[in-house]
Amino acid sequence: MHLQQDNITSGGIQHHQPFDGYKSFLDTSTAHLRAYVASGSVASASSSQFGGAHHSQQPQQGPGQSSQSKWEEPYFDDTTPTNVTGLVGKSAYLSCRVKNLGNKTVSWIRHRDIHILTVGGYTYTSDQRFQATHHKNIDDWTLQIKWAQKRDAGIYECQISTQPVRSFFVTLSVVAS
User: Fold this and answer.
1) Helix and strand tally (H, E) in the chain?
2) Residue 46 covered by a domain
3) What does the pLDDT read at residue 177?
4) Residues in domain Ig-like (predicted)?
5) What is the CATH number of the domain that holds 77?
6) Total structural domains in the chain?
7) Is the residue at 15 inside a domain?
8) In this structure, what are the phi and psi dihedrals at residue 30, rounded to the nearest 5 degrees?
9) 84, 171 in Cβ contact below 8 A?
């Protein structure tokens, strides 16, 4: 990956295209996550859908039913960046845009140690650098990592509490300023 200094914004964020090996890394790390999710700690059902953004599955339409259902399942916005670069010592912002959330909950999970960081607006880590904010006008759930460090680099999962759970993965790189 080639980093150009002029592409780093004052907020310390740079967006990239997905890198090679992303899916293979997820394939090896999701076995741990599936066991964790199946235990009921995050949601009561395990997701067989890993490796990127997943969209709603519309209910099957029977004979005589309208093609437009009365409800829609939550889904991730395709335009959300999957790769973010932050600067050491600055805040890094990981975005997760969820449409049609309804009564479901959005959680952020750090893959390195399968640590639940936030659930809804609540933070479940003693590391006070992590905070989730919800921007209702754009259906965005942003994970802020204050004073980012190189050790914060890695894959973070934005998860919707559907059954099965739906996941969107963001890869954070942290570079010296």
Assistant:
1) 1, 11
2) yes
3) 83
4) 74-173
5) 2.60.40.10
6) 1
7) yes
8) -75, -20
9) yes
